[in-house]
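Risk register update: the risk that structure generation would not scale has been downgraded. Supporting records follow, first protein first.
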Amino acid sequence: MAEQLETVENIRKQYIVVKIGNEQYGIDISYVDNIVRMQKITRVPRVQNFFKGIINLRGEIVPVMSLRIRMELEEDVFTNASRIIILKIEQQSALGIIVDEVKEVVTLGTNEIDKVSGDMKNAKVSFIDGIGKNGDELISLLDIHSIIEEKENA
């Protein structure tokens, strides 16, 4: 009976592992609509500095955000590995986020994820929901809602 209870509580989720700088981050795959190569981003005047502009994705206008600048890291450096991840969150319109590289998809159980504690004033920490352990690698799991919410309040 105890063994059966344990498997119910260990909910497994898939995450897309991306690189931003030298760190790995996980994005809950249920939010990911599409992954596209870097393309021309049209600037939009008078928006927050972390918004790079908009792209036209098959007729849909999608705002694009720099995750690096959003987390108060250094400016983006685009390479052949750079990608825009298109997120769809419930009823909201699509949003693109720029990442340095998309690595892989991993499946993590709740027993492989530690919650983050610490100073939530640190921009980077406030966007992290937990730390996933995949073998001997650590993956910071992004809290997509906290990244998006700030956008709407600003």
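Supporting record for the second protein:
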Amino acid sequence: MRVLAAMSGGVDSAVAAARAVEAGHDVTGVHLALSAKPGTLRTGSRGCCTVEDAHDARRVADLLGIPFYVWDFAERFTEDVVDDFVAEYAAGRTPNPCLKCNERIKFEALLDKAVALGFDAVCTGHYARLAVVDGRPELRRAADLGKDQSYVLASLTPDQLAHALFPLGGSVKSDVRAEAQARGLAVAEKPDSYDICFIPDGDTRGFLRGKLGDRPGQLVDDATGAVLGVHAGVHGFTVGQRHGLGIDAPAPDGKPRYVLSLEPVTATVRVGPAERLAVREIVAHRPVWPSGQALAGEVECVAQVRAHGGTSAARASFAGGALVVRPSARLTGVAPGQAVVLYRPDPGGDVVLGSGMISATS
């Protein structure tokens, strides 16, 4: 099988490419240049896709004896990931750029180009498992639950999954690093990237202010309607946020306040106590069914609303284009713009049933 290995320059994609070669595939490595200014996107373990990363990926490809290319996807990445990120925050939603990058860059733009060039599959270093059951792809959680990335892959379609390889799905991270060391890969101890790759200093609020400027509004007590302060823009907040609210006076009961909702039209940020964060119902749109099978009727499932954590047993149904999820446990900090991913409750809740973008909660 002709395989295009997406090589970020990190240890995971390096070992994934090595395993694809070892499995007997005809492998070509490719590094995606996602920034018009690649030298600015890595500070230690923050950021990715720098010139340094491209060189690291090339050295791994040379060691593996496979062809290697750098493809410039910077313009597409800016439009589909960075600009979308800014627009979502401006609209009072909280996006997940990793999910969007997987959906629009690695398994749309990259995969489309790979297939057009005659490749059978794209191989990545994601921690997730794939199986084929009754002729349908089945996306599952990784063996290493601490590294599991099925949540950010749950927006992939059956056709995209049919052209995907995730060689690390059955491994734990410590074993992957040990394997990289044994193979003589120089990236064996390279730190993992974290946070948002295009905001290497980690200052999301500052990044958004630079893009959107100030859009002043009021901080309002959700229960009483009292104005508690002013802010520079709803894009500086997310549902569930506790710190950095800019409220001088403590609550009458002495308990901390949290962001409960964002209203971009009126530039209002509503705040209140933690107990008002709990949601009874989640409504999501743009559903994706990785196996190709939509929900039929109301089903029991496990719902996840954040990339790590935020899970609950739930009941879900799909009708009229809307996915409605009713968690049985107390879920907090559920923000519009994030994804809700549904897993089969047995065995172990590791098979993805579907996903949708959260549009409302109650």
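The chain has three domains: 2-125+167-182, 214-277, 282-361. On this basis the risk owner (M.S.) recommends closing the item.
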